[in-house]
Amino acid sequence: MKILVLLAMLVSALATSVSAQVQPNMGTQNWDDFVVASPEHVAGNIYKVVGGVIVNMAFSVGEDGIILVDSNFQDLTGQIIAAIREVSDKPIRFLIDTHSHADHADGNVSFGETGTIIVAHDAVRAQLANPPRGEAAAALALPVVTFPEQVNFHFNGEEVEAFHVAAGHTDGDIMVYFKGSDVIHMGDVFVGHYPIIDTSRDGHILGVIESLNVAIEKVSDNTKIIPGHGDVAVREDVIEFRDMLLGIYGSVNSLVAEGKSLQQVIAARPTSNYDAKWAGPQGSRGIISAAYNAARGE
Ligand SMILES: [Zn+2]
Known about the structure:
CATH superfamily: Ribonuclease Z/Hydroxyacylglutathione hydrolase-like
Number of strands: 12
Strand content: 15-25%
Bound molecules: zinc ion
Mean pLDDT: 92
Number of domains: 1
Helix content: 25-40%
């Protein structure tokens, strides 16, 4: 029931936004009734915990402490920490943001205040300090370690690669690969519906495809894959998602080459083979617009 309510909120937030490309800002939502469920063991050191707007956070547990991937909404921090404490009472030493959207990074301040080191792509710090919409984040919410391409952790007996490929969902996207546990968190580059391409943060559909290709090369058929939103998946699911985007981009590119306008491209229904599985609550307009802009070289 709660998930249905959240989906309805997500739909209305998208429907009322000026553009379907815009990520809903749920930061002012009242989360009093929301319950963060117990963590789910994924593999090796890694657990998944689900926050508001069905966002997947991940955390690594072991002798060295805890690495948390994404912080979700600040109002849910108490519940998120309580969920982590069901598994480990070690200190939360690092928080890695997969990107700057509020449903992934609004809770940063709660962790920054207690001395957790926040790590993210360079662009995430800039966007939190000076967002395209809404208020600037508090100083303690800003990542203190930032990087342009990749940073490696040596933690809980395994190597952990946090890496950026291209501007895709946003230009600050990173994925986090726990190599020993063989689990990757892909942020919102890979989700259970058409990806949102946030052009206010320089997102680009071809960057999503490029990022997916790198992840597909990096992982194996045994790797457990945590999407930004949706169920734990495997490599084959990411290949299907990449092929869906290539299919949509190819169709839209052909229509643009014929001189079609955006309205004509939408009317030609280039996503019709995919909508049943991937349209989700936000529909197909956003992904068609993203493919149209990319096909025009924008
Ligand atoms: Zn996002």
